[in-house]
Amino acid sequence: MNIHEISIDSNKIENVNICACIGYFDGLHLGHQRLVSKCIEMSDANNCESALITFNPDPWVTIKGLTDLKHLTTMQDRQQIAKSLGIQHFIILDFNAEMAKLSADDFVLLLKEKLNIKGIVCGFDFHYGKNGLGDKNSLTNHGLQVYCADSVNDDSGKISSTRICDYLLAGEITMANKLLDYKYHVSGKVIHGNNKGSKIGFPTANIKVDSEYIIPSKGVYIATVTILNKQYQAMVNIGHNPTFNYCDKFSVEVNIIDFSQMIYDENITISFCHKIRDEIKFDNVDKLVNQLQADKNSVLNYFKQNEDKI
Fold first, then answer.
1. How many domains does the chain have?
2. 3-state SS assignment for residue 54
């Protein structure tokens, strides 16, 4: 997959005609995947190459001045998922103040000039151009083939990034994963902790998670972790460590099953499978250890019953 960063002043993409889906695509969930699929169909039918067009930064940063926004995916995550879905070109628009001020017509002309775009796939609620005045109807005024996808729904309504975020913040990992069509994951670096887990037989890797991610609600989770391209079974604690190491900020600690390597400063990815329980403050260490053993058994039983989940 080719990655392109496009600004108002950048050179055009040469020697290729493109059909593209366009949006911010946070999560690249089932609804977004419908657009990707239609984009690839359109590309094949028109002898073009497929592309996904997204924005950096998040348009709300440029338009409304919002800061510290949380997302389901980083830009790198979206690139990896888009590649797995069969997209050939990943196009990142430098969505600065100058681009945000383009009229709807000028924005489409920019896409045509820079990307050799022949067809475009968007969601039913896609708007573009200054003040969001452009929509699916105005796209057709520029000689582009346009496909506007309806919302993708389940029994509870529209599949959206907002719904998935709400599920994560409620600890509803199974529901979030269902709408994503993959296990929700976060990445970060292994940092030094206080080693209290090792002293009670449950050593943990403390993870400094990329600050852009939405962190699921506090509790204990069944997960897989990816370290140096290998996957391992794990249980993850998210919370404040209330029993004997309380901290105001959320910590993310991973106990990797049957793993003893030194991995400080390594980047790892945690993929959440299922929530076991809420975080609990125990009266003593023995009660904590007994619960951790029960949690470990839950992890082992889960993967025994779901051998395809790792």
1. 2
2. strand
